[in-house]
Specification:
heterodimer, A: 151 residues, mainly beta, Alpha-Beta Plaits, SH3 type barrels, 2 domains, five-stranded antiparallel beta sheet, four-stranded antiparallel beta sheet, 9 strands, 13% helix, B: 311 residues, alpha/beta, Rossmann fold, four-stranded parallel beta sheet, 38% helix
């Protein structure tokens, strides 16, 4: 492991490392998970070089684990990210994000005439993944959106 | 006869299977032959029109009364708690749900019928939710196509006019994709062409479609021409006249039509079908509107009778 890479993934005793986040999405994920509000110890790497020559963001959070639903909700921000669960400085579980079938309460519908914006209900989107990319359909107004509309 | 529609919500045409649609069409045929069957006797139906819609409301309310049902409701929201006191739709529906055996809802916001169906325990029928769905219109369209062609399989249908914003066109195309060998032609200004997501759905359902430039190109080919209105507000006023004139059906364009051709339109028409067409054997839009009554009678009878109308 070279020095640069070692610095990027330096171990934490216990917590979560979210790696391979597309550059530019790291702060959005922190904001979405409200990690700043939880008084957690965060280490954030932005625009870190990858071996491919591209760049990535990385988030390390001490004493905190992602629950499944939170991990699913992050898929749109970072479909190729890996989640590393750390215990005693070791990776005890490592997994990739999976496209959820349904996103509930994550984003507001972008259709300004959708009933979900004015009623006391969570937004719901059905997620459709194909070779043309990700699409989301609002459960209420049935409008289709490309993923980039939200992230 | 088993009735899979008993106590179902009718929110989106995509909630129906081919078998569901065939049952509704068959029931509508029976109802048309004998429109006075008392299939709603003792039932109270709430007709909740949060926005005005004369044709749909009168058609639904006639369908209820013809079958012996009773109506409660309102024809616009301005005098309701929702309109005057700011009550949420969810709360309004919860209250109405406790009074009625079924709720017909028309509302300007998209998704309102889905929300109402989630809140209510009784069946909810979508009478139009903004620009989204209007499933009972599609049911009457399907019934009319079946009535005039004796089948829905293998139908050749040309859609003309506003294919981008016209919800009736989207829903009918989606519903017909459940049938075998259906072919479609789309004739629309560039700015109002069929949305990509509908085209993708049609392709994945195995429907063949073509984009055609002129109505004349479809006349010889089609069993059904489904006309819609090109709305002025979609265009610059100068551009509108130029564009709209290309999507007007005149009787002289029908010389090469097949004998079985029927012209449909969800109405109201403005000037996209010349009145000269009304006298031709191809015009069927007024019968189509009348069929709305029978399709809605059939739908209500099926939702509220466990054995359907044949039990």
């Amino acid at each position: 492991m070279d020095k640069l890479h070692k610095l990027q993934v330096e171990a934490i005793e216990k917590g979560t490392v979210i790696d391979h986040i597309p550059a530019g999405q790291g702060l959005k994920i922190i904001n979405h998970l409200q990690l700043m509000d939880k008084k957690l110890r965060l280490t954030v790497g932005l625009n870190l070089p990858k071996e491919s020559g591209e760049f990535k963001d990385l988030i390390k959070v001490n004493e905190w684990h992602l629950v499944n639903e939170e991990a699913e909700n992050l898929f749109l921000f970072a479909p190729d990210a890996t989640i590393n669960q750390i215990e005693n400085y070791k990776v005890v579980k490592k997994y990739k994000m999976k496209a959820p079938k349904l996103l509930k309460g994550v984003f507001d519908c972008r259709n300004q005439n959708c009933i979900s914006l004015t009623e006391p209900v969570d937004s719901k989107f059905i997620v459709d993944q194909s070779d043309k990319g990700l699409r989301l359909q609002c459960h209420y107004c049935e409008r289709w959106f490309r993923d980039w509309v939200f992230v | 006869m088993q009735n899979p529609l008993f106590q179902r919500d009718v929110v989106s045409i995509k909630d129906f299977s081919r078998e569901d649609l065939e049952l509704i069409i068959k029931t509508a045929q029976t109802v048309k032959e004998n429109p006075s069957g008392q299939f709603l006797a003792g039932k109270i139906i709430a007709s909740c029109f949060f926005e005005a819609s004369t044709r749909t409301r009168l058609s639904f309310e006639t369908a209820v009364q013809r079958q012996g049902g009773q109506l409660i409701g309102f024809s616009d929201a301005s005098n309701t708690s929702l309109g005057k006191k700011g009550e949420t739709l969810s709360d309004s529906i919860r209250m109405i749900d406790s009074y009625a055996d079924a709720i017909i809802i028309r509302h300007p916001k998209e998704g309102s019928a889905r929300l109402a169906a989630e809140v209510a325990k009784v069946p909810v029928i979508n009478g139009g939710d903004g620009a989204n769905q209007h499933p009972s219109q599609t049911l009457l369209d399907l019934f009319t196509i079946f009535e005039t062609q004796q089948t829905l399989d293998g139908i050749k249908i040309a859609f003309v006019g506003d294919l981008k914003y016209g919800r009736t066109v989207h829903s009918l195309a989606q519903a017909l994709s459940l049938f075998d060998g259906v072919k479609m032609q789309f004739i629309a200004p560039d700015a109002l062409k069929m949305p990509e997501y509908i085209c993708e759905e049609l392709l994945s359902s195995g429907v063949e479609y073509q984009v055609v430039q002129k109505i004349e190109d479809a006349v010889e080919w089609a069993d059904i021409i489904y006309m819609t209105r090109v709305q002025k507000e979609r265009f610059d006023p100068n551009e509108y006249h130029l564009v709209a004139s290309q999507y007007v059906l005149k009787s002289e364009l029908l010389k090469t039509a097949k004998p079985n051709l029927k012209i449909l339109h969800p109405l109201p028409r403005v000037d996209e079908i010349c009145t000269s067409v009304d006298k031709t054997p191809y015009a069927y839009y007024f019968q189509q509107a009348e069929n709305g009554l029978y399709a809605r009678q059939a739908l209500l009878a099926l939702l509220l009778n466990e054995q359907g109308i044949y039990g």
